[in-house]
Design goal:
The protein has helices at 31-42, 95-105, 146-162, 194-211, 229-237, 240-245, 260-271, 296-311, 355-363; strands at residues 2-3, 9-13, 16-20, 51-55, 78-81, 86-89, 112-116, 167-171, 216-222, 246-252, 278-283, 317-322, 324-326, 341-343, 350-352, 371-374, 385-391, 397-403, 408-412, 416-423, 431-438, 442-444, 448-454. The relative contact order is 0.14. Helices cover 24% and strands 26% of the residues. It has a single domain (16-369), classed as Glycosidases (TIM Barrel). The protein has nine helices and 23 strands. An eight-stranded parallel β-sheet has the order 11-10-9-8-7-4-3-12. With 455 residues, the protein is an alpha/beta fold.
């Protein structure tokens, strides 16, 4: 098998790599754990991520909250008094999460800070809860409160700007098509039909322009590539006010993990016809998660999805879902946390999940500003062998090979000077296995990820 690099066509430039601080950073108060985790995620010795998603939470009314898991609740900076039906801002709240954001910013790699919300503040919703309507597929934000929500979110945004945080984007809606609420809730969320979403975005756009804020709209973080995603895009494109400040159409690539063709169709039908927009894949994890944290399959799947989202789907950045999630030990004794890292509730115990290394094979070798390459490869029906190529700003060609099957022999154009591998059979991850001039065929071990770099 030969991978064509000499004549590889240049595709889109990459804006970088990220993850979310949602649901964990507010509990990471242990300073040693916070420092180590921030370095693993945003430091030069770690993943070196440059995109940070901070959750502007909908808050919790302890007398009217159905979300049982404390990690799925948030502390809002808007303190609402239900008896007087008035509120005031307290920007000392959510301190631990803000401290983590500061610590990650101090690593010096972040150039894109995104504030996002899963729900409006609970005081603005129909139910008085941030976990969705009492009826599935029903918006929990009354039309009369659209502007209140915008004022709340933009007031928090302005606070961060005034404090010197480099907020670049705001994303007020997250996964609008899902049912959210109903008889069972587990997190914050809010459903929006396309017309409702467009009206909320229009008000946000008006207010950003009116207040002359140095931020752009980001979103609407559609929860999948199909479904209502095209309807959300089409209705936003028709609003001239929204398009003045909507710079990025962000979406999530859940539910199509074994379908590279679906990504190609998404690129052909939505991405390519709209070169005026940047398309970001802003959230993904294995869902449902069948890979425990020590299972190398989790790293293989993560690496495959990253490459396919970029090369076939046309995404200009790739962001994982939560950086850290709770340790979740099942009956088989394994931890099925879906984060890049896993931790207990007070972070006295935490571990790196294998999927972290699948991400590292991209972020540590392919910096923002790199260009995706069409190397002529597309996986067969088994989808168990993939090869993704990139050209970095310093003119290094990087190919990430993801082999989920038996040992393969491949041939790459040119000579290569560095190779790093992660596999289930090796004690050390990201192990450098070659450095020097290399021209012969490359042997790719079974169940392995191999990153090959060439000048």
């Amino acid at each position: 098998m030969k991978i064509n690099l000499d004549n590889a066509a240049k595709l889109q430039a990459l804006k970088g790599w990220g993850t979310s601080s949602c649901w964990w950073s507010q509990y990471c108060a242990d300073k040693d754990a916070a420092e180590n985790i921030s370095e693993l995620l945003y430091g030069k010795r770690g993943l070196g991520l440059n995109i940070y998603r901070y959750n502007v939470g909908g808050g919790t009314d302890n007398n009217n909250c159905r979300v049982e898991n404390p990690w799925r609740r948030t502390e809002s900076m808007y303190n609402f008094d239900r008896e007087s039906e008035t509120g005031e801002y307290d920007f000392s709240r959510d301190k631990t999460a803000v401290d983590m954001m500061k610590r990650c910013l101090d690593k010096g790699n972040i150039d894109t800070l995104i504030l996002f919300a899963n729900s409006p503040h609970y005081s603005q919703t129909s139910t008085g809860q941030a976990s969705g309507s009492l009826l599935y597929h029903t918006c929990n934000l009354p039309k009369a409160n659209y502007r209140k929500f915008a004022d709340y979110f933009l007031t928090v945004t302005q606070h961060f700007l005034d404090e010197g945080f480099p907020v670049k984007y705001i994303s007020p809606i997250n996964e609008p098509q899902w049912k959210w609420g109903g008889s069972f809730v587990w997190q914050e969320g809010c459903h929006y039909e396309p017309e409702e979403l467009a009206e909320v975005y229009h008000i946000f756009a008006e207010e950003i322009i009116k207040r002359n804020m140095p931020v752009k709209l980001y979103g609407p973080e559609s929860g999948e590539m199909g479904g209502l995603t095209k309807e959300y895009l089409d209705i936003l494109l028709r609003d001239k006010t929204v398009m003045q400040v909507l710079e990025v159409f962000a979406y999530h690539s859940y539910h199509d993990d074994n379908n590279p063709q679906k990504r190609a169709e998404f690129k052909n039908s939505l991405v390519s016809p709209h070169p005026e927009l940047r398309f970001d894949m802003s959230e993904w994890c294995e869902l449902p998660n069948k890979s425990h944290t020590k299972d190398f399959k989790g790293a293989l799947i993560t690496a495959r999805i990253i490459g396919q989202d970029l090369i076939y789907g046309g995404a200009q950045s790739w962001t994982s879902w939560v950086a850290v999630n709770q340790i979740s030990v099942h009956e088989d004794g394994f931890d099925y946390s879906d984060g890049l890292l896993t931790a207990n509730d007070d972070f006295s115990e935490w571990h790196i999940a294998m999927r972290y290394y699948g991400f590292a094979h991209f972020s540590k070798f392919i910096p923002a500003g790199s260009v995706c390459l069409d190397n002529g490869f597309f996986p067969d029906e088994s989808n168990d062998f993939n090869a993704f190529s990139f050209l970095t700003p310093d003119n290094t060609t990087v190919t990430v090979i993801v082999n989920e099957g038996e040992k393969r022999e491949i041939e790459l154009d040119g000579s290569f000077e560095r190779m790093a591998i992660t596999s289930s059979n090796r004690e050390s991850q990201l192990k450098e296995i070659y450095k020097g001039d290399y021209k012969s065929k490359i042997s790719v071990p079974e169940n392995s990820i191999l990153t090959v770099c060439a000048k």
